[in-house]
Design a protein that fits this description.
By secondary structure, the chain is mainly beta. The chain contains one helix and 19 strands. A hairpin with a 4-residue loop joins strand 16 and strand 17. This is S1 family peptidase.
C-alpha cells in the first residue's frame, strides 16, 4: 500500500484520517479474493474512488471486532474514516462495506465542528472473509472503563505499538499521552494491566500549552458498541 505524505495534525480537534490520502492497489480479481482475515490494528482504507484497479480513499486502522446478536461479525473503527456505503479495503484486499457511522462533521481544516461529537464507525465484512478475530498484541478480555492514570497501549498503522497513560476522561473521550499520526485513526486502545478494550483513536491533541500535539483523544469504545448494538469479540 502506498501512502502519501500528509501534514501533521494542527490542533486538538484535527482528525488523523481526513488528511491521509491513500492509494491501494486492488487486484482485478479482488472480488474473488477478499482479505483472508481482519484483526485489530490492520490497515483499513475506505474507498472514495477507483482509478483503474487502484483504490483512492482514507487510510485508518481497524479498532476492534464487534459481533451482532445473530453472531455475525463486523469491524469497528473511527466514524470520520468513511461514509456509509463506502467500500472497505483491508491490507490491500476487499473486506466489506461501511454500514454505519456517527459521521462527525469536519471543517475545511479537518477539525471537528462539535469537539465532543461521537466518533465511531462500523464496516460489514464480506461473507467470504474467512476470519475476523482479535490477534497480535490486541486481544481484549472485556470492555473496560478508563480512569485517569491507567496505563494504556494502542496499535496504529503509522505509529505501531505505543504506550502511555490516561490523562482524563470526559464527554465520551479518553485523553492520553500516546502520540498518534495520520493513519492511526480508529486504532484500538487497551489497558495494559488487564487488556480491557477502552477506546478508538480519534485525533491528536495538545495538552499543557505545548506548541504541537503531544497526546491523543480516543472515543469510548463502550459508547460506540452500545450505539451500534454490538458486543465486543474478545480474544
Amino acid at each position: 500500500m502506498r501512502r502519501t505524505h500528509a501534514p501533521r495534525a494542527r490542533s486538538a480537534a484535527a482528525s488523523l484520517a481526513v488528511a491521509a490520502a491513500v492509494a491501494a492497489l486492488v487486484p482485478a480479481a479482488a472480488q474473488a479474493e477478499p482479505v483472508a482475515s481482519v484483526t485489530p490494528g490492520s490497515s483499513v482504507l475506505t474507498v472514495s474512488k477507483m482509478v483503474g484497479n487502484v483504490a483512492d480513499g482514507r487510510g485508518c486502522t481497524v479498532g476492534f471486532i464487534g459481533q451482532r446478536s445473530d453472531g455475525s461479525r463486523v469491524g469497528v473503527y473511527a466514524g470520520h474514516c468513511g461514509a456509509q456505503g463506502q467500500q472497505v479495503v483491508v491490507d490491500g484486499r476487499i473486506a466489506g462495506v461501511n454500514i454505519a457511522s456517527s459521521a462527525p462533521r469536519l471543517t475545511s481544516s479537518d477539525t471537528f465542528v462539535v469537539p465532543n461529537a461521537p466518533d465511531w464507525g462500523v464496516f460489514e465484512l464480506d461473507p467470504r472473509v474467512a476470519r475476523a478475530t482479535p490477534g497480535g498484541k490486541i486481544r481484549p478480555t472485556s470492555v473496560g472503563v478508563a480512569k485517569a492514570g491507567d496505563p494504556v497501549c494502542s496499535q496504529g498503522v503509522s505509529s505501531g505499538w505505543r504506550c502511555g497513560k490516561v490523562i482524563s476522561v470526559d464527554n465520551g473521550y479518553i485523553a492520553t499521552t500516546i502520540p498518534v499520526q495520520v493513519g492511526d485513526s480508529g486504532g484500538p486502545l487497551v489497558r495494559s494491566t488487564d487488556n480491557a478494550a477502552l477506546g478508538l483513536a480519534s485525533r491528536a491533541a495538545t495538552f499543557n500549552g505545548a506548541a504541537k500535539p503531544n497526546g491523543s483523544l480516543f472515543y469510548d469504545v463502550s459508547a460506540a458498541l452500545n450505539a451500534a448494538g454490538l458486543a465486543l469479540v474478545v480474544g
